[in-house]
């Protein structure tokens, strides 16, 4: 339970520190430069894809760190 809470805290802090400042301006410029519902949906979809991409790599990186730690303890 403590691992899950600490993992969620690290995910939230990583999203706040890394993901949002890098990808938010991209979608905001897409929303501001173009008008119409279709382009707004493209901007939001782009941000969602980038967020999921980063979250996937976060999970892979977290699993590799856990495997390394377990190898060190053995």
Question: Describe it for me?
Answer:
The protein is an all-alpha fold. It has one domain. Helix content is 93%, strand content 0%. It has 2 helices and no strands. It has helices at residues 2-33, 37-73. α1 runs antiparallel to α2 (37-73). The chain is elongated.
Report the count of strand segments: 0
Low-confidence parts: none
Share of residues in helices: over 70%
List the total number of helices. 2
Average of per-residue pLDDT values: 65
Strand residues, percent: under 5%
Based on secondary structure, the structural category is mainly alpha
Computed Rg: 17 Å
What is the total domain count?
A: 1
What oligomeric state do these chains adopt?
single chain
Largest sheet: none
Shape: elongated
How far apart are the termini? 23 Å
SSE pattern: HH
What's the quick description here?
With 74 residues, this protein is an all-alpha fold. The protein has helices at residues 2-33, 37-73.
State the main characteristics.
74 residues, mainly alpha, 2 helices, elongated
């Amino acid at each position: 339970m403590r691992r899950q809470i600490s993992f969620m805290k690290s995910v939230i802090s990583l999203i706040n520190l890394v993901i949002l400042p890098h990808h938010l301006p991209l979608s905001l410029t897409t929303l501001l430069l173009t008008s119409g519902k279709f382009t707004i949906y493209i901007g939001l979809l782009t941000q969602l894809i980038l967020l999921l991409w980063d979250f996937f790599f976060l999970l892979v990186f977290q699993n590799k760190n856990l495997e390394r730690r377990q190898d060190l303890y053995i």
